[in-house]
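User: Structure please.
Assistant: Input sequence and predicted structure:
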Amino acid sequence: MKLNDLRDNPGATGERMRVGRGIGSGKGKTGGRGVKGQKARTGVRIKGFEGGQMPLHRRLPKRGFNNIHALDLNEVNLGRIQQAIELNRLDGSATVTAATLVEAGVLARVRDGVKILGQGELKVKLSFEVFGATKSALSAIEKLGGSVKSLRLDNTTV
């Protein structure tokens, strides 16, 4: 078999119908488009129009809003930080910041800041410079003698 021997199956393709070439052709006058008006024109379709019935996008209720001021924070549990220290990826003596967490592979990238969550157990005294921390995380860090410096504008715990 050669490339020039390749053919479609018989009946797979038909001749192109020439429309709008007189009534005798069978596809004359409106050219298969039906009636006059917007739908008879080329490239026009009425998006979302359901024949006068209330369209679906207007029948469904509006819900919620998109807060453009919301911060996109990274959330890290204490157990994950302890795991990075045990694997010698994170230096326990240095201050833990968003940049050091990214360098250690705990975070993929720095977003708007880091929030420390209290799940897991921390075994090392650490000092943090992060956006915020939960109450359980704060108590676990301070129990070991560590500290948390909040980078929030109003300097309160998140």
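The chain has a mean pLDDT of 91.
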